[in-house]
Amino acid sequence: MVDLYHKTWEIAAGRVRKGPEGLPASPYMDENCYEDQIWIWDTCFMVLFAKYAPRSFPGVESLDNLYKPIHEKAVTPLKVHLVDNPPLFAWVEKEYFDFTGDKNRLDDLLNKKQYLQKHFNWFAQAKSGERFACSPQNIHLNSIGADGFTWTGGASGMDNTPRGRDAGGYRNVLWVDAISQQALSARCIADMEQALGNADEAKKWNIEYEALKNKINHLYWDKKEGFYYDVTISDKQPCRVKTIASYWPLLAQVASREQAQSMVRHLMNPEEFGGSYPTPSLARSDKDYHHQTGDYWRGGIWLPTTYMTIKAIEKYGYHEEADAIAEKVISQQLAAYRNIEPHTIWECYSPSGNAPSTEHGRRVRPEFCGWSALGPISLFIENVLGFKEVSAARKEVRWRLKKNKGRHGIKNLRFGGIATDIVFDGKGTVSVRSNASYSLIINDSNYSVKKGDTEIQL
User: Fold this and answer.
1) Same-domain check for residues 377 and 395
2) Domain boundary residue, one of 384, 403, 426
3) Same domain, 144 and 248
4) Do 21 and 100 share a domain, yes or no?
């Protein structure tokens, strides 16, 4: 996994591109799909691994290539593919802020430019057929009052998903991920406003969040199966196609403890989302599940939705389950890297073997670092090594140390202005070197790290 970690950074370095003249942010992270277009949700997910090497990988900077053409009508040489992609800006900006403590960026985003509020408000009122000069496609998203949104496979990112199948198609259902991503955005904006000391704004966004939370639990929770589903527009009944999109409500923390417990049962069930190859995009019990390759979004394992699901269940304390899923998925990526030619990282993976998935019968895209780097980099650091949470604002690292892994740790971890090495010797001592003081929380025990070298006896 360490070898794969380094190889993944090497592949990802090939996706750091110098954009054409006139691009707001250059260089930028390219997702490795279309040369003349950029994607919202690919770029957002790339921020979540690029933050570990920000001097070499312009993750958060790449978001300017989306903000400026969408919300300032800037004319840029790269088109935005599907402006109505998942609205994840606030979530990744919050994650980036937590990691870096960069209040200057936060002030620019929320107080000066107000990109995050503008995107939330636009998404909330979007109408199908709307056009943006920066995008080659019409908007597919359609707001249905306060109840939610209709969407499509491409716009939602889940291209050939069978969602809406039993209701007559995509336009006849309200999509649970769309409204949940809006709730997540409201919650994250509230948290960031609070961090800036804007108490009134934080209160306003918390009210927005609570309204969405109540709506999701009222309309989208199916008591019969204990699962969040899309619902029909006509009679608000669940459209029972189980997909990985139903874990967005947990990331937004709208589920109760009991609801989360039920969702985790489905997640770990080998007949649904569990087993040797966890987090298929469509439950194995669904009639459209494609056993052999996953056929893209009919069972394919995708690192962005896997990452989302792992972080979602961690919100409710399911760390053992999260770590087990992460290790299985990275192990699959490693086996595919070793055994499949070319030896690379793939766009998505089969739900039944150590191989890439397919799209329209052909093998999916190679060299996809791109969001598939989330496995060998982010999930490796956070779930295999166990560095669960890093907060520059609190000057704190939370480590779920697994002593049975022997000697392990991380060197040159940078967050805020802190650079640190943290290494467990495999016996009972943690050696820390740091350029500044911070708190290291190891399995719920708090240790003070000083500038210089610190030895911690567990």
Assistant:
1) no
2) 384
3) yes
4) yes
- pLDDT tens column, 180-192: 999 999 999 999 9
Neighbour-count burial of 393, counting CB atoms closer than 10 A to its CB (0-12 exposed, 13-18 middle, 19+ buried): middle
Which amino acid, one-letter code, is at 45?
Answer: F
Kindly report whether the global pTM for this prediction surpasses the value 0.90. yes
Statement to judge: residues 51 and 189 lie in one domain: yes
Residue 31 shares a structural domain with residue 168: yes
* Residue whose entry in the numeric block shows the structure tokens 């309204």: 211
Segments forming the whole domain that contains residue 399:
389-458
Residues 206 and 245 sit within 8 Å (Cβ to Cβ):
no
Of 230, 99, 122, 81, nearest to 166 by C-alpha is 230
Contacts 24+ apart (CB under 8 A), 17-22: 19/65, 19/77, 19/78, 20/77, 20/78, 21/77, 22/75, 22/76, 22/77
**Which residue among 354, 384, 414 closes a domain?**
384
Angular region, 37: left φ>0, alpha ψ -120 to 50, beta rest: beta
* CA dist list (Å): 286 to 99, 115, 273, 289: 39, 39, 11, 5
Alpha-carbon distance of 255 to 263, in angstroms, equals 9
pLDDT digits 0-9 by tens, 310-327 = 999 999 999 999 999 999
